[in-house]
From TrEMBL:
It is found in: Membrane. This is Wax synthase domain-containing protein. It holds the Pfam family MBOAT_2. GO terms for cellular component: membrane. Keywords: Acyltransferase, Lipid metabolism, Membrane, Transferase, Transmembrane, Transmembrane helix. Belongs to the wax synthase family. It comes from Cannabis sativa (Hemp). The chain crosses the membrane at residues 7-26, 32-49, 56-79, 146-173, 226-247, 259-276, 288-308. Its main location: membrane. It comes from the Eukaryota. Residues 178-264 form the Wax synthase domain. InterPro entries: Wax_synthase, Wax_synthase_dom, Wax_synthase_Magnoliopsida. GO terms for molecular function: O-acyltransferase activity. It is a multi-pass membrane protein.
Amino acid sequence: MEGEINNLVMVWITVVASLCYCHTIGKIITPGTTRLIAILPVILIFLVLPLNLRTIFLGGPISFFVAWLANFKLLLFAYGKGPLSSNPLPLPLSRFIPLASFPIKIQDNPINKQKKSLTNYAIKALILSTIIPIQQNKSSIHPNVFLFLYSIYMYIALEIILATVAASVRAALCVELEPQFEEPYLSTSLQDFWGRRWNLMASAILRPTVYVPVRTITSRWIGRKWAPVPAVIAAFLVSGIMHELIFYNIGRLKPTWEVTWFFVLHGICLAAEVSVKKAVNEKWRLPPLVSGFLAVALVMATGLWLFLPALMRLEADVMAYREMIAFIDFIKSVSNIELRMDKVIIVFSALRSS
């Protein structure tokens, strides 16, 4: 535990130093290929930096924050686009670093946004706490039931981790941030699930880096009406590859590409949904309750088929359980040390007063 914390500190020192360099590059080199070449070493460093971490609760998020999101933001920054670019004046370093290194997006109209209640997160945290007894009784639970339960735990854990990071950054920057999740189980379609509810920071960065360029290029051949179809599939393909990278950083196992196929399949399904909507000019739709049920059912079924088995191959459940127990033991040991120190202080004070 202590060694992993030391590695985490080293990783963040490297990230901050690298982003300071990129911020300076942004001041002296105009957007374009030359700026890209200048920050390319940082992008390569960020790709391998998560390999210094071995735990799922540290290595997984750092892979997502740094190897994926930060790198894609830097690619946009190289050409004067994205959240790290600002005209006419560059972003201050105090805002550049958190925007680059964390999965956050500043709200444009914070007054019109409704925050999630603490009760919402408390209920989800309570549900997540059941992972320990479930893991302890894994052998007596049907494998498919266990995968279903773990998919719920994975969603809740991811939302809580991202919400915690966002809350810390919100307090530090004194700004309102976009939510990362919008209750995906309430989705009314695949387009609603992936575009407006699930892991919104990922879709927000995939849109300008993959979707828009592919749509612009393909519109020359197939027209603007149908150009979103290959653009959607390309975005999901890239998402799948980046998930493979995260999985490799967690388990150090050779990719089997099931995760990539999961996202490609959903890219094809979403492209088909968009195409049907365009073909009927959105005049006919299934009732939201029906289309939402079908969308969530498709996500769950394909997740149990392709996504979660790949995660279980890494023994992610065992790693998460072991790390949670280690964290609890660590908190207990720190509490015991503090209790002993309090007793020492009380005894010392009593001796001095006597």
